[in-house]
């Protein structure tokens, strides 16, 4: 009997169970006093032979049994918290389990699971996917969604992509990912974290390094009871464009094309200008991030009617020594006439010159109500420096709870910290609370 029971359990683990709401959404929001019905469709095992149950888990709490129904519906059992309001039922012909929830209360907010109650109450042996039910009288607010920078070490075989959703309420949120409009399922979604009256959520997915440059697009979308996020956010493959600029003073350019580092013409790269007037011509070619970062050379070749030999110009990144930047948050500058304040992030002593500076407000991307810019890098004795600035109003700056952070990304940081963060918060103009912190991100960004 023990072996037979174990075989049944293992068989059920292999069976497919698909649990969802009638709208096929994994989350639903209801107001107190409203009703809702959960429907779970099963497959892959003899549904009519087993007792079934509903179990729920409220945010931050343990599992809680809700109701159980026998295989033939002759016996029904309820948790006293839901007795009289909830009704469990089943349709063995359709292989469906139901939970009718009436007069919902805020304490009914939870993730509801289907559970096969084999051997009556002796144990929980198989779990459904789960459906989130949120009961709240608060106004529902949709998320703002944006992508985070791809993360990988030089030796890793995968890239980790992340999608951040902020400012939503209630906590019910479901991420989805697509690759070239095909749904992806192998991703992680972390529990939402509350900050004030809203929540922040994050999702991660890994992409093989070999596939990265072949991808047309990867999109992240967040679904919420208040509505789907406005548009998908695209993680494009790591590609760039080289542009060859040709200024024509006299004569005519007959042909422009690109050659690789071996001197062979790149297929499809040929341009033959028309017969019109020629002054300045442009010709582009797409390259991958790996080609550029590894110093692969490309030649722009120009054939002119006054030249015996074509003119060649090489385009190649200087992959000299990489120097890690030093980052300093400078004291704020007050502009009384405009009632504005400027925060400055000073980035110095880095090489190569490519650097990216972004700003966060309370750990969220600075919105359009803020003005921010980064100066072009200035070279001095082989290294570079730049300034990132954020301009805000007096009222925004005087918020004692607000924290403003500049985030500096540089290729020299890939194997160490990935980014450097400097933060400042308002206290008084005489005594500013300036905090210089480094955010250390592990070399490998794989989720544990």
TrEMBL record:
<dbReference type="InterPro" id="IPR050380">
    <property type="entry name" value="Immune_Resp_Modulators"/>
</dbReference>
<dbReference type="InterPro" id="IPR003597">
    <property type="entry name" value="Ig_C1-set"/>
</dbReference>
<dbReference type="InterPro" id="IPR007110">
    <property type="entry name" value="Ig-like_dom"/>
</dbReference>
<keyword id="KW-0732">Signal</keyword>
<keyword id="KW-0393">Immunoglobulin domain</keyword>
<dbReference type="InterPro" id="IPR036179">
    <property type="entry name" value="Ig-like_dom_sf"/>
</dbReference>
<feature type="signal peptide">
    <location>
        <begin position="1"/>
        <end position="19"/>
    </location>
</feature>
<dbReference type="Pfam" id="PF07686">
    <property type="entry name" value="V-set"/>
</dbReference>
<dbReference type="GO" id="GO:0019814">
    <property type="term" value="C:immunoglobulin complex"/>
</dbReference>
<dbReference type="Pfam" id="PF07654">
    <property type="entry name" value="C1-set"/>
</dbReference>
<dbReference type="InterPro" id="IPR003006">
    <property type="entry name" value="Ig/MHC_CS"/>
</dbReference>
<keyword id="KW-1280">Immunoglobulin</keyword>
<keyword id="KW-1064">Adaptive immunity</keyword>
<dbReference type="InterPro" id="IPR013783">
    <property type="entry name" value="Ig-like_fold"/>
</dbReference>
<keyword id="KW-0391">Immunity</keyword>
<feature type="domain" description="Ig-like">
    <location>
        <begin position="22"/>
        <end position="112"/>
    </location>
</feature>
<feature type="domain" description="Ig-like">
    <location>
        <begin position="143"/>
        <end position="224"/>
    </location>
</feature>
<dbReference type="InterPro" id="IPR003599">
    <property type="entry name" value="Ig_sub"/>
</dbReference>
<dbReference type="InterPro" id="IPR013106">
    <property type="entry name" value="Ig_V-set"/>
</dbReference>
<feature type="domain" description="Ig-like">
    <location>
        <begin position="325"/>
        <end position="421"/>
    </location>
</feature>
<protein>
    <recommendedName>
        <fullName>Ig-like domain-containing protein</fullName>
    </recommendedName>
</protein>
<dbReference type="GO" id="GO:0002250">
    <property type="term" value="P:adaptive immune response"/>
</dbReference>
């Amino acid at each position: 009997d023990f072996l037979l029971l174990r075989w049944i359990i293992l068989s059920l683990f292999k069976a497919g169970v698909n649990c969802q709401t009638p709208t096929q959404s994994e989350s639903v929001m209801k107001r107190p006093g409203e009703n809702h019905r959960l429907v779970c469709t099963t497959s892959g095992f003899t549904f009519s032979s087993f007792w079934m149950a509903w179990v729920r888990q409220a945010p931050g709490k343990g599992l809680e049994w809700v109701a159980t129904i026998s295989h033939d519906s002759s016996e029904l059992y309820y948790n006293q918290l839901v007795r009289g309001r909830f009704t469990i039922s089943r349709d063995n012909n359709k292989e469906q389990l139901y939970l009718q929830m009436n007069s919902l209360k805020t304490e009914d907010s939870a993730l509801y699971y289907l559970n096969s109650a084999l051997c009556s109450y002796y144990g929980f042996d198989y779990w459904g996917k789960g459906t989130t039910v949120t009961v709240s009288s608060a106004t529902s607010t949709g998320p703002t969604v944006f992508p985070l920078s791809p993360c990988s070490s030089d030796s890793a075989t995968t890239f980790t992509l992340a999608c951040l959703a902020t400012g939503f309420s209630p906590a019910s949120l479901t991420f989805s990912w697509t690759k070239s409009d095909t749904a992806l399922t192998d991703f992680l979604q972390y529990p939402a974290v509350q900050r004030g009256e809203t929540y922040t959520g994050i999702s991660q997915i890994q992409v093989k390094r070999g596939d990265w440059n072949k991808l047309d697009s990867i999109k992240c979308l967040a679904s919420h009871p208040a509505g789907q996020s406005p548009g998908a956010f695209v993680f494009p493959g790591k590609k760039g464009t080289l542009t060859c600029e040709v200024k024509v003073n006299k004569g005519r350019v007959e042909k422009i094309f690109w050659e690789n580092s071996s001197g062979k013409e790149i297929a499809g790269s040929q341009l033959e200008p028309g017969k019109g007037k020629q002054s300045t011509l442009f010709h582009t070619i797409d390259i991958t991030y790996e080609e550029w970062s590894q110093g692969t050379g490309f030649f722009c070749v120009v054939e002119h009617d006054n030249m015996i030999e074509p003119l060649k110009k090489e385009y190649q990144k200087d992959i000299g020594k990489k120097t890690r930047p030093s980052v300093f948050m400078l004291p704020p500058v007050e502009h009384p006439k405009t009632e504005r304040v400027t925060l400055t992030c000073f980035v110095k002593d880095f090489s190569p010159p490519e650097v990216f500076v972004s700003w966060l407000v309370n750990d969220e991307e600075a919105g359009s109500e803020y003005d921010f810019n980064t100066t072009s890098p200035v070279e001095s004795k082989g290294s570079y420096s730049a300034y990132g600035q954020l301009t805000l109003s007096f009222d925004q700056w005087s918020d004692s709870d607000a924290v403003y952070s500049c985030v500096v990304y540089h290729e020299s940081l890939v194997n160490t910290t990935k980014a450097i963060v400097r933060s400042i918060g308002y206290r008084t103009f005489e005594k500013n609370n300036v905090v210089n912190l480094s955010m250390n991100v592990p070399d490998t960004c794989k989720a544990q």
